[in-house]
Write a structure and sequence with these properties.
Mean pLDDT: 94
Shape: globular
Strand content: 25-35%
Strand order of the largest sheet: 12-11-10-13-14
CATH topology of the domain at 171-296: Nucleotidyltransferase, domain 5
Number of helices: 11
Structural class: alpha/beta
Radius of gyration: 21 Å
Oligomer: single chain
CATH class of the domain at 171-296: Alpha Beta
């Protein structure tokens, strides 16, 4: 959880933040399998946060949504636009229409069709939204925004652009968000999204490797990894293979981008997520991709309240990119 405050003139201040671990498989493929465990973790984070704010923004994983860009007539009124988008959403859904939760955003005039606007349509199963809202309510929180994690990452990108030489203008930048189970890759050119990919690869694979190599349970392996209490052999017998595999996964995603778009190289990679601070991961990705790799800190340009430990935040910041994008929604102009 992350709470931001306005610092004036478009600037932000980190008021407070809290992190709580989730048990293995508490959430899988966008579905909450262990609601009691998720509620307990959210309650723990909320108590640690010690905030008076009870209105929150949450995000669905991109794996739980279906999105599509469509064209809608620019002269259509709101009812006509919504009717067209609803019809399109019903065709997109691979599940019963009455289970669809729908949202959309008009992106602006279409570059290919001057009489149309481009709209982004996003659907998910209604129960994916309802289960998250219910858990938040059980903790005493009110969900006012339900976003998508991938969109939240893009929303936080302006806070990271300053880390990129030239602030990303006329350059191709990849945001690599490597979490426990998935790696999300967004590629931007001149700060505009041009490619996105999500694939099943993350720190859980390293946890499994540790458990197998040292004959411990997954829970023990995760705990030792988090506390830095692994045998010295870990650095030579386990970690290097994971770093190599991670770098190759990133390279494969870049190659898919090169095949699908006009862009044939990436200038900079912003590395974030729970794996970002693994020793040697940035160097392994740099060697595989020949790109400049930067460990992202979406909060680097923000002020800090007296409640925030700057040193601890510096270590945790790469994990907070989705939380940052969500917290910034508080300041949306509607």
């Amino acid at each position: 959880m992350l709470e931001l405050a306005s610092a004036g003139k478009g600037a932000y201040q980190v008021e407070r933040y809290a992190i709580a671990a989730l048990p293995k498989d508490a959430i899988a493929d966008g579905k909450i399998n262990k609601p009691e465990a998720v509620e307990a973790a959210m309650s723990q984070a909320w108590r640690s946060l010690d905030s008076r704010t009870r209105a929150i923004a949450m995000a669905l994983p991109v794996s739980a949504v279906i999105s599509k860009k469509i064209l809608v007539p620019s002269q259509a009124n709101e009812n006509e636009t919504e009717a067209q988008i609803t019809a399109e959403a019903n065709q997109m859904a691979s599940f019963p229409v009455d289970e669809v939760s729908l949202d959309y955003q008009i992106l602006g005039p279409s570059a290919k069709s001057p009489t149309d606007n481009e709209a982004l349509v996003v659907i998910t199963r209604r129960d994916r939204v309802d289960e998250r809202v219910a858990i938040a309510e059980a903790v005493g929180l009110t969900t006012v925004i339900m976003d998508v994690d991938n969109f939240a990452v893009l929303g936080a990108y302006p806070m990271m652009a300053a880390q990129v030489p030239g602030s990303g203008k006329k350059q191709t930048v990849a945001i690599v968000d490597m979490g426990a189970n998935f790696t999300h890759i967004n590629i931007l050119h001149s700060n505009q999204p041009v490619f996105q990919r999500t694939h099943a690869f993350g720190g859980q694979i390293l946890t499994q490797d540790i458990a197998r190599r040292f004959d411990v349970s997954l829970e023990e392996a995760e705990d030792a990894k988090r506390k830095g209490q692994l045998p010295d052999r870990y650095k030579t017998e386990v970690l290097p293979a994971f770093l190599e595999n991670a770098a190759q996964e990133v390279m494969r995603s870049l190659q898919m981008c090169y095949a699908a778009t006009a862009y044939q190289s990436v200038d900079h990679i912003l590395l974030c997520g729970g794996c970002a601070l693994l020793p040697g991961l940035d160097a392994a990705i740099r060697n595989a991709t020949q790109a400049n790799v930067i460990v992202a800190n979406p909060l680097a340009q923000m002020g800090l309240s007296g409640k925030v430990d700057a040193g601890r935040l510096g270590s945790d910041a790469p994990m907070l990119i989705v939380a940052c994008g969500l917290a910034m929604r508080r300041f949306d102009r509607t």
